[in-house]
Design goal:
Elements (H helix, E strand, L loop, with lengths): L11 E2 L1 H8 L3 H10 L5 E3 L2 E5 H10 L6
Antiparallel strand pairs: 1-3, 2-3
């Protein structure tokens, strides 16, 4: 029996996991975090991004006009 969570069940993401989910580069995710565009929580030296904050970031993106 596997105890691994699917992406939909995951509550917190590492920046690397978030980059994979967003299909962005890891550096881009760190830049978004540094500029405050992508919220995160910090515990010690670890940074984690809540699933709800990833969803909020995606919802805030404006589509390009045709």
């Amino acid at each position: 029996m596997s105890t691994a969570l699917s992406s939909a069940d995951q509550l917190l993401y590492t920046p690397e996991d978030a980059a994979e989910v967003l299909r962005f580069g890891r550096s881009t995710v760190y830049e978004l975090m540094a500029e405050g565009a992508l919220k995160y929580v910090k515990r010690g030296r670890s940074r984690r991004i809540r699933r709800s904050d990833l969803e909020a970031y995606v919802d805030s993106l404006e589509p390009l006009p045709n």
